[in-house]
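Figure 6 in text form: structure in, sequence out.
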């Protein structure tokens, strides 16, 4: 388990650099209950992320058991995820810039914020692929169902803790905190635009190299 966690750590770090979730949480602070709605967004995102992760991991584990070769399944998944990450980072995958709302106050309720958080998790494809890259390590390690679930629960708890800075800032600084978060959001967005292609290329190259090395030699790089 510890070895799996250490290998998955780079994917976790890259996954945490999620400007989409941060931007939506900052947007949610424009509601009448900024702390509650921003936490609701985070809870919705985390719940969806955990459910998707467990579903994918257990499904792949069943396939690995059926084929009686988790290494082949894990390396195949690594190859597919790696190629998709490289495609997302390529200039051929041009995306429209998303304009963030500048509304002073949103009409989000805690329930709608929860739903929004869940939707955001399903919409941010590159970060979902980084998450699948981490899940892939549980397949190659041939972990049991309980260990897989424990790994994903720990992953998502740690992931969520990173984003608690948004409601915490609002709770401590109030409206000044919202202004600070909006400035941080803009800087994070610019940094992400510059950094993410490189992060995706590195992650994609690592997964593709690991899979290719396994299929050639019968042993993965990590």
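Output sequence:
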């Amino acid at each position: 388990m510890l070895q799996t966690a250490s290998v998955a750590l780079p994917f976790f770090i890259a996954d945490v650099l999620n400007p989409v979730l941060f931007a939506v949480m900052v947007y949610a602070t424009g509601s009448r209950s900024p702390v509650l709605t921003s936490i609701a967004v985070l809870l919705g995102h985390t719940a969806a992320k955990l459910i998707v992760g467990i579903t994918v991991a257990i499904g792949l584990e069943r396939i690995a058991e059926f084929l009686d070769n988790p290494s082949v399944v894990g390396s195949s998944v690594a190859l597919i995820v790696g190629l998709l990450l490289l495609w997302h980072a390529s200039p051929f995958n041009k995306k429209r810039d998303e304009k963030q709302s500048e509304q002073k106050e949103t009409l989000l309720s805690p329930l709608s914020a929860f739903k929004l958080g869940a939707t955001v998790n399903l919409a941010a494809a590159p970060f979902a692929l980084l998450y699948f890259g981490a899940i892939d390590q549980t397949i190659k390690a041939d972990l049991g169902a309980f260990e897989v679930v424990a790994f994903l629960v720990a992953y998502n708890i740690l992931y969520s803790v990173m984003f608690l800075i948004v409601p915490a800032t609002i709770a401590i600084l109030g409206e000044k905190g919202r202004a600070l978060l909006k400035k941080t959001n803009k800087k994070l967005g610019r940094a992400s635009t510059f950094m993410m292609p490189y992060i995706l290329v590195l992650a994609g190259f690592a997964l593709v190299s690991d899979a290719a090395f396994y299929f050639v030699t019968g042993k993965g790089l990590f």
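Caption detail: The chain has one domain: 2-92+107-217.
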